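fwd from M.: "can u put these together and see what the complex looks like"

so here's what she sent:
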Amino acid sequence: MSSFETTIGLEVHVELKTKSKAFSPSPVNFGDPANENTNVIDWGYPGVLPSANKGALESGMTAALALNAQITRDVHWDRKNYFYPDNPKSYQVTQQQTPIGHDGYVEIKKEDGTSKRIGIKELHVEEDAGKNSHSGKGYSLVDLNRQGTPLVEIVSQPDISSPEEAYLYLEKLRQLIQFTGISDVKMQEGSMRVDINISVRPIGAAKYGTKVEIKNVNSFQYAKNALAYEEQRQRDELMAGHEIGQETRRFDEPTKSTILMRVKEGADDYRYFPEPDLPAIHVSNDWIKKVRSRLPETADDRIIRYTNKFALSKKDAAVLTQTLEMANFYDQAVDDGADPKRAANYLIGDVNAYLNETQLDLQDTKLTPDHLSGLIKLIDNGTISTKQAKKVFTAITDGEEPKAYVEKHGLVQLSDPTKLTPIIDQILDNNQQSIDDFKGGKDRAIGYLTGQVMKETHGNANPKIVHEILLTELKKR
Amino acid sequence: MTDFFKENLTSLHKKLVDKEISSTELTKEALNKSKSSQSEINAFITIDDQGALKRAAEVDAAGIDANNILSGIPFAIKDNIITKGLKTTAASHILDNFVPVYDATVIEKLNKLGIVTIGKTNMDEFAMGGSTETSYFGKTANAWDHTKVPGGSSGGSASSVASGVIPAALGSDTGGSIRQPAAFNGIVGLKPTYGRVSRWGLIAFGSSLDQIGPLTRTVKDNARVLSAISGKDRRDTTSEDQSVPDFTKGIEKGVKDLRIAVPKEYFASGIDEGVKDVVKKAIAKYESLGAKVDEVSLPHSKYGIAAYYILASSEASSNLERFDGIRYGFSARKDDQTLEDLYVQTRSEGFGDEVKRRIMLGTFALSAGFYDAYFKKAAQVRTLIVDDFTKVFENHDIILGPTTTSPAFDLGSENDDPVKMYMNDLLTIPVNLAGLPGMSINAGFTAGLPVGLQIIGKRFDESTIYKTAYAFEQDSQLFTKHPGVNF
């Protein structure tokens, strides 16, 4: 096994979160009825012309800067010619010669604690195609809503040497992109897709092995599984003395294997040339400076802030920064006055458990940062017990305002000694045995008596105050 | 009866304002002439009786706008310019039933000014050709001699204006397609600076070269139409944010001390002697009017044709890929077809030979392994041609020369030799490659046919072109000569 080495390069497409399309004023909106977000430009009508969306190029610059890439100063657009029913102009407008970003890198943390730098060859902005669906009744349906949606394509160097590294790279890339805010990076909506190139060669071989392409993988786990399968398949082929064919395969989820789509005989000829309908763009120093100054805090910077300022553990800070939504939620709750430690514990514990259970994304729940901070404040000021807090948490997942909920359901904690003392006296009167035990040095008795008080008060008594009064009253007896 | 040979936009406007004539009457006149001329010159693909009369009635009802010289004036539009609700074919079978859902920017602008479109004029298919013989809808004839070509590709627009059918028309010019037919028909045709007029709604041929421009009988009319259609358009980001002057302003200033350059390459062997004679006389006239004339050199212009046919065809091969027989236009759809069969069948039947030839040429020039040898090389030549012009314009205001290598040739005479046909554009193509404005006006006659004087200006300096053209026109009074036939 160890006599082979694997070379992996990934091309990741990320759909940009812009209001309008890359080269037309049609809105970008996932999930609308078919062909609703289209106009004559998207239909490829005769006589129409594209207009470049400046915001899309700026998003590309943002991503490039987040990936430590150099910015190309003179950018023009290129046409990539190919005909397909969901590509009505018959060419895709892209940046083949002048990608907006080049020569960047992403740093991944491996499980053994070491770091590795994965080079980014280039990052370019381009437009997406529409979507074909095949009815199976002899005709196909074309939806052009996605046609012209701006994308960034991020091309890695072949620096990735295992399926695990590929997974870590994709996770890191998603996190970096997500924290810039240019994309939602939702795999399930196809806003992040991966094309894989993988080759295997005997260690020490001078040349790379033959590259196999796996197209359009839409989950990181699938990418990892596809790579694991493909790595093994290629090793087996080589061990058996076979040659690896230059081919395009697809990942088949049910069997966790890759399946041959087509054998490549030569490179596709896209007949690239500069797009004559769009003027070239000069990217000025000032423009780069402006975009750089607007770069949001990265996940890594947030981890540092959380550990320094809020004394969170590195591990907890890492969990909070897995998604931008979680990190923003946390920051807002703390800004709103929640105790940072308790807020972190809630998000890592109860909130994550709730998300797992309901299979929801945080932004799709009814939870809000100020409701969480409200709940935490009620615990901290002694209004509710941690036990009551469980009920209140369930209520805020339903969108209830915590303070109003507590008042409405009489969940206020009983802390008033003038009210608690008579109850405690009554219980002591009925439990002479426990008093004797206490006097005999058995501390357990206190626990039992506290339990009785809680039972009597339906859990509303403040355990700290109960404990204090109990000690005082016991000494009196 | 209105005689368009005796009128210009100013005189027609005055009659409309004075209610001597209504737009409806003027429109009927143009419609009648367009129809009665069809059998002789076949200048139109579509004549829109109903639409034009409805529109003219609207303009009449609203009242002629006295401040707006185009109000109520009938126009003809080349059939590669998109007109909402009016069939637009680019003279191709593949679009022969295409009725657009939007208007080109130039049409929006002209409509706002109250023009009446009477129809769509014939042209070479997708503007590919120099004789209006590659049209799916038959050939158009030259206004002066119906056995000769009208030039191309805006042959229908040029011939209809020269024949007195219509006072003004729009054409498009990718390598000379306004100037060459203007020269062949003895009228005024301007290819504006690239970026002066929006291309939104112009069915693309060579996107980096195409430009819409006016064809008229007089220089002043031409200037008026250019003022109306120019300007930055947010839908065409290659259009430039340049002020749009009234191009008739200062047109009468004359050419005293104008520094004229005459490229020696424009008088090389291969140019018809009769054409040379007429143009040389015209240039001498400028000297007598006080202009200073120098011989200059445009050393790379001879490579213009080769570079042009690579670049324009490459862009065309990409621009024409969208015609698939699915979403609009002609479709060869049959029940038992596969998708690929449908594409192949539609394009085989839908495109004519010249269009297929250029698609193949462009596809080849862009293909892997040939890009550097062809497309890239051609782009480099283009830069050299731009530099040639820049150098000349350092010391000169205007360039003069012939528009064409010969006067109008016989219909059918060059059909079998595409390269011979391509050579006709030798003198106009460099202007497109450099993105400069260029005009053709009638300089005189040889063998009974008009000869074009080409006037080339600096980028966005159409004003100097108009001033230069106007001086000769007023001196020569050639615009008063016309083919004689009155449809």
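replying to her w this: The first strand of chain B starts at residue 44 and ends at 47.
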